[in-house]
Write a structure and sequence with these properties.
With 233 residues, this protein is of the alpha+beta class. Helices cover 41% and strands 14% of the residues. The protein contains seven helices and eight strands. α2 (80-92) packs across α4 (144-154) and α5 packs across α7.
Length: 233
């Protein structure tokens, strides 16, 4: 692997992910973050610098954060809430590269119900038996201990519902983490709007998941997202 080229690509994807979030109306209060593990210093990760609006994200606006929260590439200051969430998850999951989390119109109210998704839509099948509930009242994450509990609840799943807080996804690439997050928000929207859902069967959900929850589908969806939204070009 060409380390420099991989770092450049991961940072590009992170910046585009933030801009997709902005185009979808998320993060206007700076509430959220997308990370990418550095391909060489794997105990460090890239994140948007504090104070930079999501819509203005660029690779040059990202900062490298170390395991103790120290900034290793300049920046205005450590984003401690992000560090408390992202670092414990990245440390616990060597299989992933990226974590995505922000507060959304449907994900946050859905999280207030402290429940899991049912397979009531096509996109919901992506998370069938593949998401977790972090059932904890520490909604203002203020410690690595809380982040470790989130990581423990997440387990090996691709996403989590953070009780009274919002949604979180992870991926083997930034493209995956961002795509799964957008899908997860749509699933939350369906759950908040439908009145009498009729879930599909266990086998039907697994059949759909096998086709939808792939690296190829995530890549395809991510490319559509960045070309669909003007703020993400």
């Amino acid at each position: 692997m060409d380390i420099a080229a991989e770092r450049t690509e991961r940072k590009r994807q992170v910046a585009l992910g933030y801009r997709v979030f902005a185009a979808l109306g998320w993060g206007d209060l700076g509430d959220g973050h997308i990370s990418a593990r550095d391909p060489e210093r794997e105990d460090c990760y890239w994140l948007l610098d504090t104070g930079v609006p999501f819509a203005h994200a660029s690779p040059d606006a990202l900062v490298l954060t170390g395991p103790d929260g120290e900034l290793l590439s300049g920046g205005r200051g450590t984003n401690w809430p992000a560090h408390y969430i992202h670092w414990p998850i990245l440390a616990a999951r060597p299989d992933i590269v990226s974590v995505a989390h922000t507060h959304t119109q449907f994900g946050t109210p859905f999280a207030a119900e402290a429940r899991l998704f049912e397979p009531i839509t096509q996109e919901a099948c992506v998370f069938f038996e593949d998401h977790a509930l972090f059932d904890d009242e520490e909604v203002q994450v203020q410690s690595l201990d809380c982040g470790a509990r989130i990581a423990e609840a997440l387990g090996s799943n691709r996403g989590a519902v953070l009780r009274n807080h919002g949604l979180l996804t992870v991926g083997a690439t930034v493209k995956q983490a961002v795509t799964w997050f957008v899908m997860m928000e749509r699933v939350a929207e369906a759950h908040m709007k439908v009145r009498s859902p009729r879930p599909i069967s266990h086998n039907a959900a697994l059949f759909a998941k096998a086709d939808l929850a792939t690296a190829e589908q995530a890549h395809y969806a991510f490319e559509h997202l960045i070309h669909q939204h003007a703020g993400a070009r």
